[in-house]
Amino acid sequence: MNQNELYNLCCRYHGKRVRITDREGRVHVGEVTRVNRNMVWIRPDEDLGGYGLGFFGFGGFGFGFGIALGAITGIALASAFFW
User: Fold this and answer.
1) Whole-structure pTM value
2) Can you list the positions of beta strands (E) in the chain?
3) Is residue 78 within 8 Å of residue 67, measured between CB atoms?
4) Which end of the chain is more exposed for a tag (fewer CB within 10 A), N or C?
């Protein structure tokens, strides 16, 4: 998936819970709060432990933390994985 397709997909998922896998193999689960051509920001789920560096400095508010679109290897709606 190229970066333009990934950007469009992230825009479509804005406000929804997603599961993102990055190049390092880390899985991030949370709500997409912001998207631009280079980054997607997610607010991790508190009840699921929301993986990701840098979030806890935000105190549970704001955009969450950013993930570079170029670092994403997969993205899917989280509801497809959590029934």
Assistant:
1) 0.76
2) 17-22, 27-35, 39-44, 65-68, 72-77
3) no
4) C
Structure token digits, residue 30 = 């949370």
Q: For residues 8 and 21, what is the distance between their CA atoms, to the nearest angstrom?
A: 17
* Contact present, 5 and 71 (Cβ < 8 Å): no
Do the Cβ atoms of 32 and 18 come closer than 8 Å?
yes
DSSP 25: S
Q: How far apart are CA 38 and CA 13, in angstroms?
A: 16
47-77 pLDDT, tens digit per residue, is 544 444 444 444 445 678 899 999 999 999 9
